Amino acid sequence: MEKAAISSYKALVARYGTPISDKLFHELRDYAMKRGIKLSGFKDFVGDIQTIKIVIDDICQIAEDFPRILDEKVGIWLELDYNLGTDFATTEAGHIIHLNGGYFSNIEVLEEEYDSAVAEGRFVSDTNWRSISRHEVGHVVAYAYSIDPLEVAKEIMKTGSSVQVRYRIGKELSLYAAEYEDGREFISESFSGYYSGTDNAIATEFVKRCLEKMNERQVNRMKSYSEAMYWRTNEKWFVINIEKDRFELTKAAPPRAIESFRMYLRQNDLPDNPIPINYGEDVMV
Fold first, then answer.
1. Cα–Cα distances in Å, from 217 out to 221, 224, 226?
2. What is the Cβ-side half-sphere exposure of residue 113, based on CA atoms within 13 angstroms?
3. Which 3 state secondary structure label does DSSP give 62?
4. Among the listed residues 184, 190, 176, the one whose alpha carbon sits nearest the alpha carbon of residue 150
């Protein structure tokens, strides 16, 4: 351990207390890994690991509705961070959730500070400290499913006016939800309210619309997969080129079959231009 690291460690112990034992760290790490969540920095955690287990459980609750947040392409990282200042948590790169080590190591202080912010109207009414992770997961969902929070808000409020949306969001959801004009906090505060079991109407409508959008995209994706094999529905439209080990369309393939074949090639990471046509040569279509 370098001198700077020793100094940093001593400062950490002096301010927050002695970090958890290796046994407790491994217990927490294994708990997270079994649920598809990776941890970083928690060897320096000085609080109760049950607090972090609750955070992990709350993330998994949302993942039941939005499973992509825990798949290999996204994957949530929980990072313990003692340098967040007064922020309870932040989300970086779409899927890395930083938890403020100072707050999460002292649940009493965390509860007091969060409840105070709720009382001021900054966060959703009737939520508690557990809403912090739910809030951050909202950002991950927006990233994983390419959701535009401002667009969703306009849809549920049936208006094209951004300022009207921000006014209602700030009044009926929370002040923090309306803090940024691009609407980035709409989804996070809606997830905070909805998954905390509040009866906030905007939070409920917002999350339900996100679920609808996810399902619509899944249906469209299924239709896309089906359409990608349309060219195979007629044996006259294709042949097998044994020498080149590939399928080729024939002159009989109609335009829809050609477009279908293009989709098939793209989904399999095969060159889609020019499309191989069984004319004895590759031609542009």
1. 6, 10, 14
2. 14
3. helix
4. 184
**Average pLDDT along the chain:** 88
The Cα–Cα gap between 44 and 47 comes to 9
**Residue 204 CB coordination number (10 Å):** 15
d(CA 242, CA 82): 61
Across the chain, which distance is largest between two alpha carbons, in Å? 79
Token pair for residue 6?
Answer: 């020793």
SS (H, E, C) 245-257: CEEEECCCCCHHH
All structural domains of the chain with their residue ranges: 3-219, 228-285
List pLDDT tens digits, range 200-245: 999 999 999 999 988 876 655 555 557 888 889 899 999 998 988 8
Output phi, psi for 16, to 5 deg: -115, -20
Instruction: Please answer whether residues 189 and 174 qualify as being in contact, where contact means their C-beta atoms are separated by less than 8 angstroms.
Output: yes
How many CA within 13 A on the CB side of residue 220?
6
- Residues 87/107, Cβ–Cβ less than 8 Å: no
